[in-house]
């Protein structure tokens, strides 16, 4: 009921115009109508009598529908809803082409929708000519149609029209159609998110049905880019290229341009730079129809450190591969050493399939034709290189997965490139792919994690100013540089940075330095002491009064006319350190409040919440693997891993699982040679894996979208 009454203002405004554009109204009718309105607002009854007399005297006047609408407005004011809408129905019935008929139909449609008579409401709206509505009415009209749409194709069409009229209204209001907005509350940003969510569930046939009705505006290009992506995933490169080129003819948002550049890179139809290429969300990626892997037959080589100091990492990666191959129930001997040499630890047996094991039946088993040929690098570059040479000599091995760490990955990459066999390393060292078109690097990098944090903080939280509090170690300084670059690249502003010793437990000095305590004058120090005394006294007050006192005290300027510390001039604070550091509670103690905390994957531990308590509420964390994700592929992976090995999976097992699935996807697309496997992997765009969303850049490096977690109600919650 509230919405209908809110429209009374528009109803009254609509009645102010006497007749439509270009229509001539006899002077006698105009004067009579003005006289009928004259008693308002003091004597509504007299107005009703005068308006009814006007209708009797001039039943066919161009102002008759205005008079009926005015009578409806008065009925509203008097509480007569049914009588008011009876007047509106009479106006439309008697004057179906009247200048007020479209606005009246809109109100009748709204009324019927509130009564849940959706079919009747749609009937009223179908008769509306949107071009005869005001901008405000058109926005309301299309929003109402979106809610009443009978299927998602209609909903998409009406959302596109709602977006167009919203853009027109914002441009008119701002006087500059090109003025961008980064705010997550921006109406266009909200509509784009709504459109994107709708596109996830639409089939290819639905998208084709929608295209003729979308016109040239947003999201016409986006729909075509979705079709291009689906064709690329399905291996139909000519069709993907067609839709990509077709999309260029239509209006693009900045996000659409990023999608287009990413697709162009995969299809080889542009020389776009690879920095900043678009990555879809996990929900978008998982909604794409990726090729089914049932029945795939393939032999894949594996080179991992299964003995020596890195054996635990190799074990985890191997388990992920076994799970992806569906072979995890089979107990087999330890892997053979390269060139027939004995392993250093012959008693260290693992569930490793040798030359050609058949996959066993399991919840994740897809095929009985995946063969893993496993070799142990023992963490040695020489053994890794020898293993690649041995595996490459087997012509049926179409790709090799591994190794993990830098030195052995570099040695393996050099051999794989020379022998022309695709190598998918689990390293995060980007240089391993340099000038090697058969080498791919798959594991997530710190840049991936930081980019996602900054992207979300700016686009969804609305942060514009940033700070970092970091350990002054090699890792901490590297994260500071990456974070700074990511913020500046996206148009944000770095305003504060402070470091501390890696083994520090007291963070008072760097925290207070960030917010201006180390720059205060003597007079300001006295003012701060007085403020502290007032705050202590305020603790004895009623909590609501005390909160108001605190707000007043913190808005007062110092003796020199400058704000007193803490000057918290940043919206978001990044802390790239372990979950066990007591930093968040100390931030609160030193009055750094109301900022968005950002943490690296090192924060992904339940102990963080136990230590930080309420001080880490709302904190955002990016991580390469999140076993608690509600996405089906992750749930299945975790369940299968737990059932098979009795432990929890980690980043290494997840990365290896995805690596094999990337190769199997190419086999499902009928890639039957090493060259075809390589070319297919280069076209991977937005692959939904258990270690995040993956796209392969032209240089062979994976760009990954990590999982994003937020602390809510003393637990981690996945957000995507």
Q: DSSP helix count?
A: 29
- The CATH topology of the largest domain corresponds to Rossmann fold
C-alpha end-to-end distance: 35 Å
Q: Domain count, please report it.
A: 5
Task: Walk me through the topology.
Elements: H1 2-6, H2 8-15, H3 27-37, H4 44-57, H5 64-77, H6 81-94, H7 101-114, H8 118-126, H9 135-148, H10 152-174, H11 187-200, H12 204-210, H13 220-233, H14 237-247, H15 254-267, H16 282-287, E1 297-304, H17 311-325, E2 369-376, H18 381-392, E3 397-401, H19 406-419, E4 423-425, E5 439-441, H20 446-461, E6 465-471, H21 474-489, E7 493-500, H22 508-514, H23 522-538, H24 543-555, E8 572-575, H25 583-589, E9 596-599, H26 606-612, E10 620-623, H27 632-645, H28 651-668, H29 674-682, E11 687-689, E12 692-696, E13 702-705, E14 707-712, E15 715-719
Parallel strand pairs: 1-2, 1-3, 3-4, 4-5, 6-7, 6-8, 8-9, 9-10
Antiparallel strand pairs: 10-14, 11-12, 12-13, 14-15
């Amino acid at each position: 009921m509230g919405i209908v009454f809110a429209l009374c203002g528009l109803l009254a405004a609509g009645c102010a115009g006497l007749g439509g554009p270009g229509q001539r109204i006899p002077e006698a009718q105009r004067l009579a109508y003005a006289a009928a309105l004259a008693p308002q607002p003091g004597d509504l009854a007299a107005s009703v009598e005068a308006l009814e007399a006007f209708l009797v005297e001039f039943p066919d006047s161009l102002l008759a529908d205005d008079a009926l609408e005015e009578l409806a407005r008065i009925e509203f004011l008097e509480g007569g809803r049914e009588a008011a809408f009876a007047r509106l129905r009479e106006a439309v019935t008697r004057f179906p082409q009247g200048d007020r008929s479209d606005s009246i139909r809109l109100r009748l449609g709204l009324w019927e929708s509130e009564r849940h008579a959706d079919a009747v409401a749609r009937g009223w709206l179908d008769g509306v000519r949107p071009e005869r509505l005001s901008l405000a009415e058109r926005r309301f009209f299309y929003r109402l149609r979106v809610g009443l749409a009978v299927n998602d194709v209609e909903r998409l069409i009406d959302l596109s029209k709602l977006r167009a009229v919203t853009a027109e209204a914002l441009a008119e209001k701002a006087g500059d159609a090109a003025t961008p907005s980064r705010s997550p509350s921006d109406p266009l940003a909200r509509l784009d998110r709504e459109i994107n969510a709708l596109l996830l569930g639409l089939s290819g046939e639905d998208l084709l049905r929608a295209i003729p009705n979308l016109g040239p505006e947003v999201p016409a290009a986006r729909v075509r880019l979705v079709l291009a992506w689906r064709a690329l995933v399905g291996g139909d490169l000519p069709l993907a290229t067609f839709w990509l080129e077709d999309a260029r003819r239509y209006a693009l948002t900045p996000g659409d341009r990023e999608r287009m550049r990413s697709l162009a890179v995969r299809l080889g139809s542009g020389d776009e730079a690879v920095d900043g290429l678009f990555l879809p969300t996990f929900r978008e990626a998982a909604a794409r129809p990726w090729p089914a892997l049932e029945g795939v037959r393939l032999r894949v080589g594996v080179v991992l450190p299964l003995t020596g100091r890195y054996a635990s990492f190799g074990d985890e990666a191997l388990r992920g591969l076994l799970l992806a191959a569906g072979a995890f129930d089979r107990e087999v001997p330890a892997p053979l050493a390269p060139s027939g040499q004995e392993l250093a630890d012959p008693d260290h047996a693992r569930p490793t399939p040798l030359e050609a094991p058949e996959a066993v039946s399991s919840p994740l088993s897809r095929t009985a034709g995946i063969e893993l040929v496993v070799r142990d690098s023992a963490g040695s570059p020489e053994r890794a290189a020898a293993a690649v040479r041995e595996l490459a000599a087997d012509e049926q091995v179409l790709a090799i997965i591994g190794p993990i760490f830098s030195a052995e990955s570099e040695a393996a990459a050099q051999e794989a490139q020379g022998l022309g066999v695709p190598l998918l390393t689990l390293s995060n060292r980007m240089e391993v792919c340099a000038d090697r078109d058969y080498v791919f690097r798959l594991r997530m990098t710190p840049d991936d994690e930081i980019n996602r944090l900054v992207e979300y903080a700016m686009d969804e939280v609305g942060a514009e100013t940033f700070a970092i509090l970091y350990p002054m170690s090699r890792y901490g300084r590297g994260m500071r540089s990456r974070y700074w670059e990511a913020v500046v690249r996206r148009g944000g502003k770095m305003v504060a940075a402070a470091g501390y010793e890696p083994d520090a437990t007291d963070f008072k000095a760097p925290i207070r330095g960030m917010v201006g305590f180390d720059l205060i004058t003597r007079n300001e120090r006295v003012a701060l002491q007085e403020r502290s005394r007032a705050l202590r006294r305020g603790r004895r007050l009623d909590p609501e009064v005390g909160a108001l006192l605190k707000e007043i005290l913190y808005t007062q300027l110092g003796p020199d006319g400058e704000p007193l510390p803490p000057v918290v001039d940043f919206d978001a604070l990044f802390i790239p350190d372990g979950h066990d550091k007591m930093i968040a509670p100390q931030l609160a103690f030193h009055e750094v409040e109301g900022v968005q905390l950002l943490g690296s994957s090192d924060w992904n531990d339940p102990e963080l919440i136990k230590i930080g308590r309420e001080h880490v509420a709302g904190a955002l964390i990016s991580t390469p693997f999140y076993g608690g994700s509600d996405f089906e592929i992750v749930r299945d992976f975790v369940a299968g891993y737990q059932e098979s090995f009795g432990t929890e999976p980690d980043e290494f097992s997840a990365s290896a699982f995805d690596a094999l699935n990337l190769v199997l996807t190419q086999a499902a697309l009928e890639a039957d040679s090493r060259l075809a496997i390589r070319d297919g992997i280069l076209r991977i765009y937005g692959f939904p894996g258990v270690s995040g969303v993956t796209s392969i850049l032209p240089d062979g490096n994976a760009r990954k979208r990590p999982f994003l977690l937020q602390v809510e109600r003393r637990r981690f919650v996945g957000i995507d």
